[in-house]
Protein: Phosphoinositide phospholipase C
Amino acid sequence: MNPGALPSFPVLSCSSGIQADDDLKSMFVGTVMRKIKSRTWKKQRYFRLQEDCMTIWYKNPQSVIISHLSKATCCTARTIPFARGVQSTSWRAWRVYFPLNAISRWICDWFKKADKNRDGQMNFKEVRNLLKMMNVDMNEHHALRLFTMADKSQSGTLEDDEFVLFYKMLTQREDVLRVFQEYSSDGQKLMLQDLKDFLREEQLHEDGVQQYALKLIERYEPSDTAKMLQAMTFDGFLMYLSSSEGSIFNPNMVDLYQDMTQPLCHYFISSSHNTYLLEDQIRGHSSVEGYIRALKRGCRCVEVDCWDGPNGEPIVYHGHTFTSKIFFKDVVTVLGNYAFKASQYPVILSIENHCSVEQQKVMAQHLTQILGDKLLKSPLDGKIPIGLPSPEDLKGKILLKGKKIGGLENCMNGVVDDPLMGEVSDEEDTAEIDDDHHRNDSIRHRVKKSKQRLSKELSDCVVYCKSVHFSSFKHSQIHSKFYEISSFTESKTRKHIREAGSEFVLHNARQLSRVYPSGLRTDSSNFNPQDMWNAGCQIVALNFQTAGVEMDLNDGLFSQNGHCGYILKPTFMRNTDERFDPENPQNRDGYKPLSLSVQVISGQQLPKVNIKEGSIIDPLVRVEIHGVPLDQAKQETRYIDNNGFNPVWHDTLQFTIHVPELALVRFVVEDYDKTSKNDFVGQFTLPFICIQPGYRHIHLLSKDGTSIPPSSLFVHVRITKLM
Structure:
């Protein structure tokens, strides 16, 4: 064959059926290039890309050779001079397309793009900015250590080849590569069928697998050539597993997905206690910032403690303490501005009223004038209602929870009762000794409540949330109205659950209940909200300012359904014909326990918890199940010595879940310490029903619930039926 002559081939597209562009077509036709083995061995050879887009055909005097394109061969591709007078097709095509299967060239292109002064070097600050441009998360402590390792010249800067080494060390994932190669036919890529097999067998996708696989390739595959082949490289595979679709949290449940047309009492409602406090309950600072933070976090029930203030203006603070004071009107203004920033669903303003009638009228005036149409002051349809409206019905509305003169029916019929004389506040003024701490019933400390009149103006602002004293479940079943709500201390709630759990669940299927922390929690600590949710209590009020496992559970439950602050209770907690006892869940109809298997594979770039120079964490992972008492469990992996960058466990933890609809799963990473309490590193909590099976990443959160990228865990999850 004349090396200068180009044979004619009918080239239209890759064998995959994807249409090729002009550059790719010229590569199918082929060209003559010089093959160099040494300074003296330089031979002209004719090269042609095969129709599979992954192999090269070339001819030497003795034989025809077909060479498979791999990352290794692509990485060595470089521009070479052509022999004088040799005809050639576009070298640009070869230079552009081949390296797209090689991550090194992609990295080098980014390096050159960021190298503004063209000196071929970058310091750590420039590298950090480049990684942000590449959308690569990093822990600065780990990245700096790898930067120093990659700086072979010890110049304090990285050249392009050193940056490639740094990037590969930063993103190296042998654990993911092992999974990739298990399903890859050639160890280099996942063809469409390979990816479909992985999605079916590991990720347990059933319907529309081919369409979903193609969507993943289009969304996460960085190589245009691989996209044309309908294939996924390892880099695309890693990007997919690191994305929201590869997260343990089912992305279909992140957005609003539940029925929002059920009565208000059929939902768990994200609720705050003493929202105005930023610190403890005795000397803490009061601020409207507490309301802003809670509302932005998706809280849908906030609380105010109102007392007579100077110049006729009601104030908000924790009465009989040294907490600072803020004006009630400022709280209402903030409520009007921030109530619907995070969610359009209704906000309940729970008022602990200690004001005189005169200042109650001022409160009503502020509520009406500042909130305007946002404040719900009458039933939605103008008729006597027969049940609570839904969150959907109440979108954009603020509901007042408090004492009310007479019933809703009387107000609708124009009957006006005398101003209420009695207790206008729900909560005890001072601490009631918690039964769980002191079982001697004789030890009680109470301050006598003052008897106050309730102003009609403030009473008229209460519609669907009339506060009433709780007598008994039997009394409530006979006499209570759907719009009445009772408040319980945490200790009384636990007592009711122990003694009449199923009756409590039925009570909460008909009307709202609110649970608040014991007065002994002067440090603003929290009780475990899971116990209260197990009984169907809707408004479980927590101190949002206090981080810890309790707020992790609250954030975990309400992280689903669009973070809207309302979660639909399970069917067996809404149906008044069913009997569910959280203490004996196996007795309910439809009891179907599940087995949860979690293989904790590895961790990535875990944050440093000890600021001491040179300290490295010894991480372990604990998986906790929070739910009905029968489901409460926790197990741990072993700890890994001195490795916070890429610890590997491959430890499997097994659990039985009796009531999956109520269970929450909390993943906790700690720094093991054999002489003292382990240090907290990160956590992630989610509802059991939101777990995606298969190989998944868990993106860790800090103690206060904020993201700490790129810290994560890599796990494999399996959920199977036991009955």
Summary: Residues 1-19, 68-100, 428-448 have pLDDT under 50 and may be disordered.
